[in-house]
Specification:
50 residues, mainly alpha, 48% helix, 0% strand, elongated
Length: 50
Amino acid sequence: MYFKKIRERLKEGKIIHDNELNIDYYTRVSSNKENQLSLEEQKKYFEKKY
């Protein structure tokens, strides 16, 4: 759903949860350490931590 359409629906009194949203995420490796080179290693780290 585009931002313009969401804004219109919010002005009509709809709440954010009434809108279908597509969410993406972005990750970035910040060093050349072995455990940061693999997406799987990063997933394991965050699954343990959270």
